[in-house]
Write a structure and sequence with these properties.
Layout (H helix, E strand, L loop, with lengths): L1 E10 L2 E6 L4 E5 L2 H16 L6 E10 L5 H35 L4 H8 L3 H9 L1
Parallel strand pairs: 1-4
Antiparallel strand pairs: 1-2, 2-3
Helix pairs in contact: 2-3, 2-4, 3-4
């Protein structure tokens, strides 16, 4: 199966879809049908079965908004970085809670040090 790139842009009430690899253009009414319309365009143009066509949809201009896919990709990347940082923080928080508990610090004081409730501190110590 070959993957083609479809570039979608918004024109009025329609999504215009350009597939540079085949120099083809089609349109869709909504995002739900966008990929299907691009696949059908490619399959018909190349005279291949629809099941042999995959499409990577990218977004160009949407109204006055430019670089939509690039910006959305950057947001996804930042979300992943935030998830990784959150996991790292959780591990460090748990480790510090354990170390403080071993040093005979009370759960309430551990909560105060970590900026969490004493109930959360208890959960951290119990892990």
């Amino acid at each position: 199966m070959r993957t083609y790139t479809a570039i979608a842009s918004r024109e009025g009430r329609w999504w215009m879809i350009t597939v540079p690899e085949i120099d083809g253009v089609t349109q869709a009414r909504n995002l739900k049908e966008l990929k299907k319309m691009a696949q059908e365009l490619i399959a018909v143009t190349l005279d291949v079965p629809l099941c042999e066509v995959d499409v990577d949809v990218r977004f160009g201009r949407v109204g006055d908004v430019e670089c939509v896919s690039q910006r959305a990709d950057a947001i996804q990347s930042e979300r992943e970085q935030a998830r990784q940082l959150e996991r790292q923080v959780a591990e460090e928080q748990t480790q510090l809670a354990h170390e403080l508990a071993k040093a005979n610090v009370t759960v309430r004081d551990i909560g105060s040090i970590l900026g969490v409730s004493h109930q959360r501190a208890q959960q951290l110590v119990s892990h």
